[in-house]
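Structure tokens
________________
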Amino acid sequence: MNNYLISIVGPTGIGKTALSLKLASHFNTEIISADSRQFYKEIPIGTAAPNSEELSIAPHHFIHHKSIKEAYSVGAFEKDAIEKLELLHSSKAVVVMVGGSGLYVNAVLKGFDEFPDIATDIREQLNLELESKGLEVLQQELKRLDPKSYESIALKNPHRVIRALEICRGTGLPYSSFLKKPKAQRAFKTISIGLKAKRPLMYERINNRVDAMIENGLLEEAKAVFKYRDFNALNTVGYKELFHYFDGQWTLDFAISEIKKNSRRFAKRQMTWFQKDSETQWFEYDTDVQNILEHIKRNVKKPS
């Protein structure tokens, strides 16, 4: 196995993009984004997508290739990303992947659990029941239909509960029965690099990044997509808070403080997710790139 994928993970605002550009330049290669928010071309500021100067340093893939009006699942991303990797690896031994969306990173590295297609009216009905009956009723149904999922998924997240229930209702089988199947074999070896920082510093970087986003036009960007607020792509930190401001429910200062708070919480969840992977080698966010390159070179030399 002579092809390698360098996967860079870590919390939001930690410096993953900067490192990916340095590594791509060193290996004269291209970058695949595994950031599910940066797929959408209408929202570059709030998703901290690479700017035009950064995009010019190395070819990027899966940046701004979709509209917020388009549905794009993790399964579709896995298929597209693997096809792109096969093409890139035909001429480049090393490709870089960067992103903070753990589910999307795992889909590329290990394969994604395959679920059957479910009729859309089942999800629509579940969303109606969420509004009329509340989340607790759906949680109890999940407990009855799939106790294993009830014990393992984030029950406070209505999207996770509805996703599990639509599989249960649509197939008559537990959602959990479709998980943990043998993972797909990959035609490349992964070298996983994680960036981290002490929590106070990580939070300070996030707060500063949010301030920079506001200065760079996040408010105007959010106004431009406000009419699409119900689209799944906009159910994300940075937009849903500003939508409350536009609705007159919150002041602007409070909305910005909520963006910072929710971004910090998101970063904490990201670290919890990525630290589960024992194969990831962690480095401080300001580690000299030469030290990271030495680690990569040692792993490239190892027989696969």
In short: The radius of gyration is 20 Å.
